[in-house]
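Section: Multi-chain targets

For targets with more than one molecule, the full set of components is provided together so that the structure can be written out for the assembly as a whole rather than chain by chain. Components appear in the order listed by the source. The example entry contains two components.
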Amino acid sequence: MSEELLALNKLSVDYKVKGGYLSAVNNVSFTINKGEIFAIVGESGCGKSTIAHSILRLLPEHNEIIKGNIFFNGEDLNEYSEKQLERIRGREIGMIFQNPLDSLNPVYTTGFQVAEGMMLDNISREDAWNRVIQIYNDVKMPDAEKRAKSFPHELSGGMRQRVMIAMMIARTPQLLIADEPTTALDVTIEAQILNIIKTLRDEFNTAVMLITHNFGLVAEVADKVAVMYAGEVVEQGTVFDIFDNPKHPYTKLLMKALPRRTKSEGRLQTIDGSVPRLTEIRNGCRFENRCPYVMEICKSKDPDRRIVTESHSFCCHLEGEVRNNE
Amino acid sequence: MSEAVIELKNLKKYFTISKGFSTKKIYVKAIDDVTLNINKGEIIGLVGESGSGKTTLARVLLNLTKSTGGNVVFNGVNLSKATRNEMKKLRTEVAVVFQDPASNLNPRDTVMNSIMRPLILHGMPKKIAKQNAVDSLELVKMDVRYLNSYPHQLSGGQLQRIAIARALVLNPKVMILDEPTSALDISVQAQILNLLLDLQESFGLTYLVITHDLNVIKYISDKVAVMYLGKIVEFGPTEEVINNPKHPYTEGLMAASPIMDPHDRDKEKYIMQGDPGSLINLPSGCHFHPRCPYVSEHCKDEAPQIIVLPDGHQVDCHKYAAVKSL
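Its structure, encoded as tokens over all components, is:
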């Protein structure tokens, strides 16, 4: 039986902006089990990264209001003091970002930066260094020993991302949050990095929260998927639920917008209109202005979560109503 | 017989760099001996990893930098020998759309001014130019009320439409699109791709689409050219190149491209190892040999010649030399 590792319960994040609040994340709940790759997909500005940052409390202080609970191994991280949280960061929950060059210190060798985390756990400098070489081999870094002595600018993009991953697995966290880990990389390098993430899961049973806008990655590695739109999870399920049997109109349209055919087979589906401004959001479904099946009720009432199977659920007024009319 | 709009013959573009105080010059062969014909009304996709010379090729085509050797023949006019007047005419016939629309539009100009500018530069009276700008905005399916907006008021998709409108305003025959949808979300990407296809059909335009997204190429283009370290290693009809890749590099690239269906994930996947090489220290012989799974001694010594297979597929690999001699 799979064990629950991270559970978000009705998480909402509001940012303070001029003249009010911006609801960046609204009422998001999901569960990540141990050893699971959980993907959060959505278009830019839908709140994917805000969720990731709020888990480790990396958001700008005093500028946001977080409501709801973040249970990690059964304990609410929102109740933790800054000091307690520090013990979680890096050791229990690791995080890698889109651009590895921004996350590495240019004046230290990459090997030292990887070893630094381990030395915080009272491992001697020498042991830590040997372990770095070992991990570099695990992440298939070519010339591990030479690369450990290189500075970040001497490495290619793919190698830098390997350093970041090495840094994270050095302390074997239970959860790895990967925020667009391959967006800045070429497809061939992307395939290599995905492979490393998969092996990591298989060997250490690390859970991975994969944040991406690329449905290709999701199809490739994810076990479960949450589809986000304008700060809300509109649909979640296993990767097969989402790809084979999408229920929410937004997911349905997105699946048809993916370029997976040639032009001779017909044009791609498009979604007209654009994402509403999050400051203007009031009641009702947030997809209402772009939805082809929009009804009166959508404009006034938030849709409830509907359960399709144990793993698959979505938020929409539609399903029941259409069936009645048919 | 379709006529060639653009002919590249043994095109070369070398950059020189000098290291330290040494006077010895080092050449960066960004484009090395590229021969390619683009016919009227075709959509050619140009793919390759970053640093393979794709964008340099576009810049040479646009005459933004001078080539080092070889010829670009455009509608029968050789770019390197073109007179001032011919050049001016050429500039109206080739248009370009770049990757990041936000950085290509003047933030202090309204949409109307941005679109009108090329017309005014080519000596059109302001009144007529205004009308043309309105027409061109309608072509890209945008409301005329945006004419007086500034770039910061518009979304990424809208900005890309304006960039396309500006490219179209001079009635070009050829459009060079450098990563036209890379900065956009999936739903918007589908809109822009469909728009580009509609425009191409109604005006019989010729496109050169540069991208690293193979799924986009698969959808939009008629022919694909694959570039690796300054050389075109494979060129042929899209379906041939995608489903039946000949060059080992294309094979690796296709295998690395993200799948769009989770049911495909269990298929055995070939992951190409190594990083894309650097143009500064080019490998001897065939540039691809350090990463090639079929490498032989011959490949390390001698660069392959371009071989045209019976089906019109053009490939740059020793593996097919035997086929030719038959």
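The domain at 4-325 of chain B is CATH 3.40.50.300 (Rossmann fold).
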